[in-house]
Amino acid sequence: AGAVRAPLGAEPPARCVCYGLGRFGRCPIARCQLAFLLLLLDELRVPPARCALFDPAFSAREAAALRALGLCLLPENEEGKHGIEGATTLFYMVHCGKALYNNLLWSNWSPAALSKLVIIGNSFQGIEERLLSRILERDYSYIAKVLKGVEEVALPSHPRYLDTFNDTSVHWFPLDKLQALSPEVWDFVEEPMYQDCEDLEIIRRGEE
Predict the structure, then answer these.
(1) Does 195 fall in a domain?
(2) In a domain, 13, yes or no
(3) Is residue 92 in some structural domain?
(4) Residue 35's closest CA among 49, 45, 20, 21?
(5) Hey, is 117 helix, strand or coil?
(6) Mean pLDDT of all residues in the chain?
(7) Where is the SRR1-like domain (predicted)?
(8) What confidence score (pLDDT) does residue 204 get?
């Protein structure tokens, strides 16, 4: 909670969006991630009704369980393209595919919007280290362009939950760092299509 609260300051997020939680009815790792999300909402004083989730893998029973916990379900597969509409928003995206992060950045591609985002998900620094620069710039250009405008802190590790939160960081985008980027960075706002991507880690709309 401390790692997440640091970039938020005294102001709690207005809402939370969770992508890619997975089959928590079957998977212990997904159950731990759900438990952490619920504890985090409580710690940050975000009402469950202000937390929306989507995973095309959810069963009807899992969806009913989430509603019983007071959480909301997004009605359709947004492919991560969720605009924050001016409200400080926490995105909980543990172990999601790179395209989801890239799409989220594209949907909020301005200093004003990005400065209101906090992302709990795969380390952007780790993505940069593991991916060839030409692939990163071609397929995930918004991640590549924001690397100099993001701050990230790894979630504290715990020996019991190494597989649950490995490679997971808290990311935020300080306004002064974003404004220091070249103006040309903000001029290119073409929607990501991933036509040449060989390893697309995302379920597209209509493929559920």
Answers:
(1) no
(2) no
(3) yes
(4) 21
(5) strand
(6) 91
(7) 10-172
(8) 61
Rounded Cα distance between 83 and 104, Å, is: 8
Instruction: Record the pTM.
Output: 0.93
> What's the rounded Cα separation, in Å, for the pair 199 and 189?
23
CB 93, CB 119: distance < 8 Å: yes
Q: Which of 123, 61, 116 is nearest to 95 (CA)?
A: 123
Instruction: Give how many domains the chain has, as a whole number.
Output: 1
Range of the domain at 100: 1-8+18-185
Q: List residues bridging with 170 in a β-sheet.
A: 120, 153
pLDDT in tens, 173-182: 999 999 999 9
Tokens representing residue 193 in the block: 């299509």
Q: Which of 185, 166, 181, 164 is nearest to 123 (CA)?
A: 166
Q: What gap in Å lies between CA 155 and CA 43, rounded to an integer?
A: 16
At residue 205, the pLDDT reads: 64
Residue 197 lies in a domain: no
Q: Which contiguous run of DSSP H or E holds residue 5?
A: helix 2-8
Measure Cα distances from 69 to 94, 115, 133, 166, 208 in Å: 20, 30, 42, 26, 24
CA distances from 36 to 26, 99, 161, 201 (A): 17, 24, 11, 24
Q: Which two tokens stand for residue 57?
A: 């893998």
* Non-local CB neighbours of 181 within 8 Å, separated by 6+ positions: 145, 148, 149
Name, in order, each residue with C-beta under 8 angstroms of 199's C-beta and a sequence gap of 6 or more.
none
The pLDDT of residue 158 is 84
